Amino acid sequence: MLTISIDGKSGSFPSGTTILAAARAVGVEIPTLCHDDRLHPNGACRLCVVEAKGWDRLAPACHTILTDGMEIATASPAVDEARRTVLRLLAADYPAEALSRSPEKPFHRWLRHYGVAPSALQLSTAARFRDDSHPYLHVDMAQCITCYRCVRICDEVQGQFVWRAWGRGADTRLRPHGGDTLLASPCVSCGACSDTCPTGAIEDQSVLRHGGPERWTRTTCPYCGTGCEMLLGTRGDRIVQIMPALDAPVSKGHLCVKGRYAFEFTHSPDRVTDPMIREGREWRPVSWEEVTRHVASRLREILAKHGTQSVGMLGSARGTNEENYVAQKFARVVLGTNNVDCCARVCHAPTAAAMKHMLGTGAATNCFDDVERAAAFLICGCNPTEAHPIVGARIKQAVLRGARLIVIDPRETELARHAEVHLALRPGTNIPLLNALAHVICEEELADEAALRERVRDVMAFREFIRGWPPERAAEICGVPAERIRAAARLYAGSPPAMAFHGLGMTEHVQGTEGVMALVNLALLTGNFGKPGSGVNPLRGQNNVQGSAHMGCEPGKLTGYVSVEDGRDAFEAAWSAPLPRAPGLNLMQMIDAAGRSELKALWAIGYDVAFTNPDTIRTHAALETVEFVIVQDLFFNELANRFGDVFLPAASPFEKDGTFMNSERRVQRIRQAVSSPGQARPDWQIVCDVAAELGHRDAFAFRSAEEIWEEVRYVWKAGAGISYARLEHGGLQWPCPDEAHPGTTILHVDSFAGEKTAPLQCLDFVPSLEVQNSEFPLLLTTGRTLYQFNAGTMTMRTPNRDLRQTDTLDVSREDAVRLGFGEGEIVRVTSRQGAVEMPLHLDPRVKPGELFATFHAGETGLNRLTGQGRDQVVMTPEYKVVAVRLEKRPGS
C-alpha cells in the first residue's frame, strides 16, 4: 500500500491508483471534462491538473499514478489559473444560452465555479452539426468542446464506432460516421454518448420534452435476462430519463436502447387502469371488491364441478420473484393443483432440464464478469448484440482485445462477423454439429484428460459412441464444411478457458434438451467448468425467466427448483397445507387439455399465450373451450381481447418493489419509482386478495414484497442468505445459504451439486418433421431484433417503433431474384399450419434456401406458421424450424 497526502488528508492506496481515484476516495473533488470512469484515461483536457510536491510541472490527475509519499495539492493559484485557461479556451466559441438551459452539466458547473463566461465575441456556429432525426437523441455540436468522450465511449464500451472526428486542429468537428444523420448511421441508440457528454451537445430528447429529473430511483431493467441496473429519473410522477448505474456489477455503467429509452409504455394512454368484467362483447369497469368476489366465485364453482385438474395458473417472466412465488403457492394451496407454469416452458426449460440432469443445477455455471477472463467464446444459437446487448457488447470488446470467437448460427449475426469461425448450420441440426465437435476433440486428443479422470464419468462409452460422428457425416446433415467443424473444435479445446453462451436457437427444437446436453458434453471434455472464464451459460430471454421458474412456477418443481416429491414434507410444514398429489400440467399440456375440453379455467399473469404460443390456429381453438379466462396484465392483449372474461390491471415494473433473478443467478432489487395509474396493483396483491376471498387469508397475509421474500428465504435454503438489506448495494448470486456467505459466482468448482463427477451423454439425432419439399421448399427460423421485445407489449408503445416498425421476412438476394420478389414487397408466407403476410427484406446475412423473421408485431401473427413439434423431454415448442413457401400476395 502507498501512503500519500491530498490537500492535507492522508490515505493508503494500492499501487496503480491514480491521483483522481485517490482524491475521490478521501472526499476531494477534482474537476474533469474528458474523463469517464468507464473509459481509459487520456488526460486530453488538462482540467484535472494538480500540484505534486517536488514536481516541476502540473500533473493530470486522471492518469497520473500515485507514488509512495506523494503530497498533492488540488487547489492553488497555479492550478486554478491553469484550469481557468483551459475553460476560457473551451468557452471562446460556446453558446451562452446553453449555460442557463442546462446549468447542471459538468462543463457549465465548472465555468460558474471558476468565473469563466463564454466569449462575447462568439464565433459563428452555423456550420456545426445539428440533428433531431433520432427519436431519442438530440445533437447540437455548437455545444461540443471536443472532449472526445462520445467517440471513446462508443468505441471502448459499445464497440459501434459511430462518432468520428472530421478536420484537424481548430477545425475539428465530431459527426456520426456512415450517414448524414445519427439515425442513418450505425448507431444502436444505447445513449452512452448522451450520458457521458459533459455539455449537452448530445442530449436525451425526453429531457428536452419533459424537463430534467427531480428524483432518482435505483432499479433493475424489465427487459432481457441480463439484469442491468439503472437509475430512473422522475419528474412529478412521470419517468423522464433513465441512466445507467455506473457501479452495476452486470452492466458496468451501460444500457441498451430498450433499458435506456423504452420506458414510455408505463405512461401509455391505453393502460388498463380499472378491473374489468366482460358481459357479452362489452367490458364493464368494476371495483376491486366486485371483481375479487366474482373471480373467487367462478373458481369455486369450477373446482366444485370439475375438480382441481380443471384449472391452470400461469406465472410471469416479467413479474418479480415474489409475485411468481405467490402465484405458484396460490395454485397449490388455494386451487389444490400443480397445474402451474410460466414462459420458461417455451424458452429455457430445456436448459434447466439438461443442466440439472448432467451438472446437478439447471442454471448458468459462471458470471458475466467471466467474459473478461475468457480466452475464447462459443456462441450457440443466440444473438447477444441484439437480444442481450450489454452482454453482447462485453463479448465484442473482449474479441476486439484478442479473445477468440466461434459462432454457431444459421445467419451471419454481428458477432459472426467478428468470429474466427462461423458455423452456419442448417436450422434444426444442432445435435450432429455438436457431436462432430466432440468427435474431433476426442479423436485428435484435445480433451482435458486430467478433468476427465477426476470429474467426468462414462468417458469410455462416450468415446465409443462419438466415433460414429465424424465431421464428414455431420457436414452432410448440417451443411457446414467438415474442415470448418474441425477448426472450431481445435479452437474451443485449444484456447482455455473457453466460455459457452447459448440461447433459444439451441432450446426451441424437438431436441432442445439434448442440444444443451451436447453443449455440456463439450465443456466436460475440455475441462471448461468450475473455473473463471469457462462454463455453460444460458442467456435467458426475459428479465425474470430464471426467477419465475426457480420460484416454483413449473408443474413438477417447487421454490428452489426442487421436485414436488422431494420438497413435499418441507413445504407442507412451511405452508401448513397439503400439496397436491396429482402431477401437474405444463402450459403445452394445458392447451392440449383445453382442446379436449378438460381445462375449464385459466389465470394468465403477464403472459399472452394467445399471441405467443405456437400453431396459433390450434391454440385459439383450444382456448375457445375454456370457460373462464382471467387475464392480469398492463394492456388488453390478444388473450384478453379474444378469450378473456376478467381483466385485472397490474402495476408495471417501475411501479412496485421486489426482486428479479438474471441469467447468471443474480438476485437484484427493483424499486417503485412512480405510482400505478388508476386502480392498477402489483400482481402479488391481486392474487393475495383472491386467496383471502377463497378462505386462505392467513397463508397470504403479506403486507409487502419484502415479507414475501422472507418466506422465500425460509423455504429456499440456497437463497437464505439473500436479504433485502444485503441487496441494497448490488445483487447476489445463489447459492448463498447464509448472511455471511458472499454468493457464488462460479458453480461446480469442487463438485456437481454434491456429486464428484458428471456424466457424458450419448445423444442420437432425431430430425425435425418440419422438412423441406417441393410444396414447402424454404426453411424459416425466427429470432429477436434489437429494437423490439417479445410480443411488443412494451416496446411497441415507445418510440422504438420508429426504429423498427414491424416484422420483416429476411431473404437472400438469390432467393428473392429467383422468386421474383423485391425489397419491401408484401409477400404471403405459408406453412403446413397456416399463412401470414409480411414485408420482405433482402438480407445478405441469410443463406439461400433459408428465411429469418422476427415475431414482435401483432399485425403479423407469425405463430400462425409455427407447428406442433415439441422438445421430447420438457415439451418446449419447436419455434426455430418451419418449412414454408413464398407467394405473391393475393390481388397484387
Descriptive notes:
This protein is α/β, with parallel strands linked by helices and 892 residues long. The chain contains 31 helices and 38 strands. Helix 18 crosses helix 19 (482-493) and helix 24 packs across helix 26. The protein is globular.
List keywords for this structure.
892 residues, alpha/beta, 31 helices
Give helix % range.
25-40%
Large-scale geometry = globular
Count of individual beta strands? 38
Quaternary organisation of the protein chains:
single chain
Main sheet: strand order = 15-14-28-27-26-16-17
Largest sheet: 7 strands, mixed
Whole-angstrom Rg? 29 Å
Report the average pLDDT across residues.
Answer: 95
Strand coverage percent: 15-25%
User: What structural class should be given to the helix and strand makeup?
Assistant: alpha/beta
> In angstroms, what separates the terminal alpha carbons?
76 Å
Q: Helix tally?
A: 31
Taking pLDDT < 50 over at least 5 consecutive residues as the criterion, the unreliable ranges are none
